[in-house]
Write a structure and sequence with these properties.
2 copies of one chain form a homodimer. By secondary structure, chain A is an alpha/beta fold. The first copy, chain A, has 13 helices and 14 strands. In chain A, α6 runs parallel beside α7. The first copy, chain A, binds a DNA duplex through α3.
DNA sequence: AATTATTTGTGCGTATGTATC
DNA sequence: AGATACATACGCACAAATAAT
């Protein structure tokens, strides 16, 4: 009975293809009626059952829809793949503080122009929160990821998830720093150079006794410290342990940083200038020094990092090493998009920091 | 032939339900074999055709898969809905500026705890960007939306998209204000009261000639102005047109606000106190007045709105009417989640503003 | 290596039910 | 009320894949 001598396609399959072709060639639109089952059966000399099988599958695939008693119609042929929104996941340590809004803004400018959505995740610099974010990203259907690492100077307990992302082939860029155990593309500021610039500036102003306050659990803190050391070493200035204060994430309160008061007082008394991990820290130091009835920059000079909004709004305008912020956000977003589209990109980018001279540091008399 | 006397379910439908029940009750797992078509047909006294229809649909729905020549098996029953990441879309006018990071932070705290992703969109207070964001949200698979309206005091050209969202049944909350043409749930600050509080405070300090700088294309500007008027009227203080300056989005530059210089000078000279639309404006006014070699609050008192970070960091600590920021973000996120989960929620919430007294306003002598 | 039984896949014919116009 | 269209249901025949004999 079956005349498919030479491994012909099944009849219903051929019919499906014919119907799809017709829809596309005739340019039939959503809601247009197609032939009835009986018409098709007669036309193709097949049974109505066969027609129903073809139409049934097309209905399931979204090409057609049927209305009982009326007929069969062309369905919404939304090209699901191409119309699907592309999404980039962005995970940072903080959201509201500081320079992050600007960085995210820069990313948004690029991503939204390129038709991407931006999914935000925030870790508050805690590993458990980081884990939740990563799990979300993995479960979501996203095209690329931008990560600002959490406690980047410490061993990371979420490397399994990062590896999973890499294995899945999802492009991922880091900013500010990268976990040493991973070999991922990144866009960072040259923090060692930034530390060097800040310190060199103070040395050139004549300061000989320079203290520093650095963050111990972020890799940026380590690099800035490294640049600080380098500049001192160049001029043969010895580095006293008591001139360095380290703090970590948990020391940051709403209004202050928990620093060992005695150590801080020693620092203040023995140094004519202090390098502060960032503008936020610098401002807290400004307040602390002010409450000790001393004055900046007359009694103590400060240089900080980031050039955030805080730096210019404050009472004492801060001399600070600028973070590119928006520019960095844009750059990393562009790099990621290029990577997604298969274009060649620089995998490791270091951006140049720049010293912005304002009022918080002056010559040592 | 058909014995469905009392509108029974179709046989294939009953069979489908039976198969699903069996899978669930027997705890059959992926890969377990079920009965053959013929077995089922005999068992239920139906034709094989009917069995095939039932199994065919279940296959399409992912319950089963078939292997030619071997049999029919239980498929991967990934509970697609529950395993899928839930997402909330958030659209604001700005990202980096000002109080928005705090608001978004508040939302993130609630949403991430409830297992939601947060998709960000930013309009830069322009309608065309707003349109793109809304289109993205509509095309994405989103469970709920939070909107800060763009140019909320002007007629909105994107109402068609908003209506589309409402028709789709996607829960949507507004913050700060809502388009008058839409009847949507919202969480706002009582801006009229905020305007009133600020003005009353100045009046109580003895000021009689009070000016105001307001934003004309955001509804918040209108409401704050309204409260301003109300307080003046209560004390029978007449309102001179020349004491009011209006600006709009396009007047905001990186470092300044374009204000008519002559009008501004008139304002400064004829008023002993000024109500500023927000802290950002206030700081620009502070700088302008400083450059005119005048002093705040000695020569002119300022009261502004929002109590942003700027208010406390600046040289002159601003007296300002506080915006709840994080709290508002949390509240609207909680409301939205409750709505999504079908719980009852307050549809229109007005939060109470609170005057924070600092140093930018003093008694009129 | 060939056969056979089982199972799903393709295809036809027929009849009746039910929604729409 | 009748024509048309899709929906449900039964029956049969043969093809093709699989597994066991």
């Amino acid at each position: 009975m079956d005349k498919r001598c030479e491994r012909q396609k099944p009849k219903y399959q051929a019919l499906k293809e014919y119907i799809i072709e017709t829809i596309e060639q005739e340019g039939l639109k959503t809601g247009d009626k197609i032939w009835s089952e009986n018409e098709l059966a007669k036309k193709f000399m097949v049974s109505r059952h066969t027609v129903r099988q073809a139409i049934g599958e097309l209905t399931n695939e979204g090409w057609l829809y049927k209305v009982h008693g009326k007929g069969t119609y062309v369905g919404e042929r939304i090209d699901q793949k191409s119309s699907k929104i592309k999404t980039i996941g962005v995970m940072t340590t903080y959201l509201d503080d500081y320079i992050f809004p600007s960085i995210i803004l820069g990313m948004d400018q690029v991503l939204s122009k390129a038709g991407y959505n931006l999914v935000l995740g925030c870790t508050y610099n805690h590993h458990d929160k980081e884990r939740v974010c990563l799990e979300n990203f993995i479960r979501s259907d996203i095209q690329g990821i931008i990560i600002e690492p959490t406690k980047s100077a410490l061993p990371n307990p979420n490397l399994d998830l990062y590896r999973q992302i890499i294995d899945k082939g999802i492009p991922m860029f880091f900013i500010h720093g990268c976990y040493q155990e991973l070999d991922c593309p990144y866009v960072v500021v040259d923090d060692t150079k930034a530390g060097y610039l800040a310190t060199r500036y103070l040395i050139d102003l004549g300061h000989k006794s320079i203290g520093g306050i650095f963050k111990i659990d972020d890799i940026q803190g380590h690099y800035r410290f490294k640049g600080f050391q380098k500049a001192l070493a160049e001029d043969g200035i010895s580095l006293k342990d008591s001139n360095i204060l380290w703090f970590d994430t948990d020391d940051i309160g709403e209004e202050f940083i928990k620093l060992d008061h005695k150590k801080f007082e020693v620092l203040i008394k023995s140094c004519s200038a202090i390098i502060c991990y960032n503008d936020q820290v610098a401002l807290k130091i400004v307040n602390a020094i002010k409450s000790m009835e001393m004055n900046i920059p007359d009694d103590i000079s400060l240089v900080s990092f980031d050039d955030s909004q805080l730096a210019v709004v404050s009472e004492v305008k801060l001399t600070t090493v600028a973070h590119p912020q928006k520019k960095l956000g844009r750059l990393v977003a562009e790099s990621l998009i290029n990577k997604i589209d298969g274009r060649e990109v620089k995998d490791k980018v270091k951006m140049e920091p720049e010293l912005i001279v304002r009022d918080s540091a002056k010559e040592y008399e």
